[in-house]
Amino acid sequence: MEAKIFEGKTIDEAISKACEGLQVPREKLAIEIVAEATSGFLGFGAKKAVIRASLLQLDREIDSVINTAPDSERSSGAVPSPEGSSIKKPAGGKKYKKMKGEMPIITGVTKPVPEAFSTHATEAMQLLEGILARMGFSARVEGDETPDAIVLKIIGDKDGLIIGKKGQNLDAIQYIVNKAVRRSASDRKKIIIDSEEYRTRREESLRTTAIRAAEKVKKTKKPATLGPMNARDRRIIHLAIQNDKTLTTKSRGEGEYRKVVIMPAPLENTRQ
Prior knowledge:
By secondary structure, the chain is of the alpha+beta class.
């Protein structure tokens, strides 16, 4: 699908129109800002914000896998392997299948599914392995299941590429696996996907950032605004500050530009 142009009074409005026009949530769009909105002078010369939007390549690949797979393969979470011509076996002993117009599927890296895994956990694990294979990564997946969540860990030699900038690739993969598995699952258990303990390291980093910003606010008595964050990261900041009665936090902005503001708490709150 080719990228389309959308306009709005603000970037957020243009993004909303893109979501409506392409009929997908914001998380499944690749957004490129073409032009910022300008107010002009006394209302003259005002220009709208312009963006170029298209479906994420990863979502197109996975939707194709989910929608075209036979029922038996959907229920197991396995990625179908279309017929294709075999190509030369590379060093390392892994086998590849060549598919017209698509990335090679890598086999031979799957770790046996733990016996204690539920059907949904097994489906999530196998689907994740299929996604990584279609992305061209030679990685294995290890898993653990608790009463509240299914935790899948990716282990490979290209973890940085899998994680992406600020965990964007990891978040995208996690979103797709959660959505795909929940299509037929009555179990609403959250699926968490991690690599190289990124989730833990990210949480520790955010807490450190929150504490430093909080100390600055206490000294200057002025609000401090942190950079744009996703909903999960903003929640970590809020929780890191919630026990300090002298401070309060609020989220401001829209969409991917939403930020956390740390500020002195109202006097009536500090007296309690």
